[in-house]
Amino acid sequence: MLSYECAGIAQAGGLGEAVAGLSRTLVSDYKIKVTVLLPSHGRHLDPQLRERYHFSEEPRFIAKDDRVGTNGIHYGFLSGIEKGSRDGVDYILVKGLDAPTSRWLDDGVLYDHDLTLEKMALFSRTVKTYSEFLDSMKRPSELPDLIHANDWHMVPAGVAIKQNLNMMGFLRPLVFTIHLLSHVSLPWHYASADWCGITDSRVQRTVGGKGSHAVDYRHIWETGSHDSIERFGSQIADYVTSVSQSYLTNDVLSYVGSAIAKKSGPIYNGCDWDVELIKSSVVDVRTLGTSPDELLENRWNIRSFLLRKGLGEVANELQTPGQNSVSKATFDRSNQKVIPFDKDGPMVLMTGRLSPQKGADLLLDSVPLVIQELPETRFVFFLLPSGDTTQMQEMRRRADVFPGNVRIIFAQDRHAYLMSHLSADVYAMPSRSEPFGISALEAMITGNPVVGSSVGGIKETVLDIETEGENGTGLLFPAERKESLAKSLVNLLCIMMIDEDIQRGSGRHQEYLELISSKTIAELTIGNDRLGSKIRQNCQRRVEQNFRWKNAGRTAVSRYAKAQTLSKSGNN
Predict the structure, then answer these.
(1) How far apart are CA 213 and CA 341, in angstroms?
(2) Percent of the chain beyond pLDDT 90?
(3) What is the pTM of this model?
(4) CATH assignment of the domain containing 306
(5) Integer Rg of the chain from CA
(6) What is the DSSP string of 449-473?
(7) Cβ(156)–Cβ(196) under 8 Å?
(8) 519: domain range?
(9) CB distance 267 to 241 below 8 Å
(10) Which one of 34, 50, 195, 386 is most buried, counting C-beta atoms within 10 A?
């Protein structure tokens, strides 16, 4: 299993979660031996992580060679590996053994254009050399039966290993999963033996189902793929997968070419969150003075605690330059903590990376439209910044316009993050594009209906109440339409607040009902004033039945079998 990131070791987004989740289920549920290989990103230097994963250096292996630049200059590298294991999964971190190599492989930053390309190349050269080492040491049992490359970063390594094993006499299939298209194009020299290690040898290719002919790798890269690393990976791979059928059909195949349609299929992501464990984890020192039983008795108690007190314990670890230019309305600079809300209220939660793709700006655009109908609504954003400090400052500035309604948190506070999922009334997912969206599963398993844009994997995970009725798990709206987003939020919040009102006897049932703009939803709510509870149950049931990692593992095993068949037949 080749990946640029992996949850628990080095992670920036859903890719790391997907690789970790799939690897665990393949080991535990399907008894497949899995080794995850990734650049170290300097994580092997963390003593706690070393202990947790039992990392130790492989002293007998050293990769030492030169990379030759387009300028003809030789750039030497010296690299090695750290081996570890956890929960039955084996891990290999590729690290530098001298300063010039460590400068790239051991840098703690995961994504930065030049840095990423250097890490990819050195990783590829090292794992290719490691396969040669295992063969020379007569350790064939440690060579892979199948190579699974995740996303474009791992194409050079995946192809180089497949090619190298084939030259050794080991025919091994390559599965390539596109989690998110990058549309990266690079010259052949980058992939070649001079840099990433792919030899310009000849390979048999099937042409239009009419037989095969020999073609060299450079030709496939330059002519067949037009220098696109994802097209190249898709052509060389024995099987291509993506994380949803919608994304595979509408995005991946339209970009890499429909010729691979017969050797492609989705492997949906999963979520193994245990709600009871999450509930027990939120009861810690922060809840002193509040009875755990009372806190967990219902969602509104947890919500009130989080909004009025819990958020005040969250330190913004990830500070933005120019912090002093931000008002004190939502952030206390004296102690670097978030200012909690004065009052409880219906809560909208959004989590994820701060990037245009995720659409946090669109949710902020909808705030004035929502609070015009429901003034007491609280919006809580848990966001991981992408390095764009200008964007972070702009988000803070815009949030401060609504001090009574919005909090934006640039922090990794696991306790508050999990508590927010137990507290929210609605989860917002206003993505401009979304191959899958694991966060929708995390929301639904904790009982949060989703208001999501009708794109990619969201269309396959969220069942729209407008069309599915009482079996729905949320509402879908046209992407980038703030008015539709706001209406969907108000409609779904009203469903949830009517349910809460019935349980609490607050007497606002009719008020919320009159705010619902959809005739279909209004009729459903009139017919069942506890519709909110039914929807929460639908959400949890949908994840349990369709989107646990065990389901993903079952599909992956089927895709692997297909890849092995195609590899043996040469019909890829």
Answers:
(1) 68
(2) 81
(3) 0.90
(4) 3.40.50.2000
(5) 25
(6) -EEEES-TTHHHHPPBHHHHGGG--
(7) yes
(8) 275-547
(9) yes
(10) 195
